Amino acid sequence: LLESPGNKLYPNKSGITFMPIIDMSLSDLSCIHSILHFVCDQSAKYEVTPIITFDQPLFQKATYVINSQQE
To answer: What pairs with residue 11 in β-bridges?
Structure first.
């Protein structure tokens, strides 16, 4: 939503939320799947666009998990 003081439109204040840590090995693809599923559920619940940061090896695994789900 946008706030409009006067004639200008400004986006609402953004925020950063740290999510709980999952006590699983990141080498386990089911862990990555669980994280992605949780983030999708939370973003739908709060109607926001999620931003997830990964290092390169974890990004490759997450991409693999996403692509294997689409088949």
So the answer is: 2
